[in-house]
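Page 42, continued from yesterday. The earlier attempt failed because a stray header line got pasted into the input along with the sequence. Redoing it now with the clean sequence only.
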Amino acid sequence: MANNIKRKYIGAICNRDLEVMENIKKFLIKNYNITIVNLMKNGFESFNAKYLEKKMKKYPFSFLIVKLVSQQENKRIYDILDDLCPDIPMLNDLESVQICESRFDTFKKIQSVYKKISIPQLFNSKIDALEASRNGVDIIVKLDTHNIPDLPKNDRIIGIAKSPSELSDLINNRDEKNLFFQEYLGEHDIIYKVYVVGNWVISITAQNRLHQLSELSPLDLMHIRVPVEEKFKRRIIRLGRKLGLSVFGVDYILTENGPYIVDINDFPSFNNIPEGVSLVSDYIYNLISMREVYQKAFLKVKS
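This time it went through. Structure tokens are written below.
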């Protein structure tokens, strides 16, 4: 089938979940004659405006994928893309990718754009968190930065404080600007992980990372697919659209007051979703094809 389709090019600015990206690359070239061009082949240092301009002259990019570990250098990449590629569509909106690097920015954005999704109470500072703690609110403290390179996910959780003194001890000698304070909703053995590709949604169970994984059996660590309640599914999709995300992941817990979202991630790895590679690849192809149809129709009307 791919041989009958005109070659198209996607620019990829990615340095995380590279195995998944490689599989997407193979699927796209085999099935849709779409080539992914690695724009970070030689790392951050070689990526600059002149380099990108050179690649854009060589390859007429129809699409861009940005999937980065969280580092200060990313800001330079965002600025270059915003300046040189404002009209090239991206898998996820560039602003949304940048926002998802910070837990605080992510949940603050959710608060401002979509009230129908329940999230734990968010605290702007340690002073606010301490005040809430004095009023009986349990506080979970995490590192604010998402997708920290070479840091195990368990180490991104600082701890849970059930009193002001515990909270003070947790954050003692830590830089507040690197911390994320949120209401702790109690023990939940199971977290539900939702994967979204356009309007396709699937959920699996996962063990809560607050537990010691070394104590869990292989059976405990199994991921089981579970249905997503239709109303909640629609709200997750709607949330993604409001944030500018079309391929993303959500973690939620079930409480007596319904589901609460506790994490959101732009372009998750899909390691536990075997059909994830084909779904993302199909979605990219369909987006590129629809855009070409609209462009041809516009030019026809204009002429």
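Notes: The mean pLDDT is 90.
Reminder to self: strip header lines before submitting.
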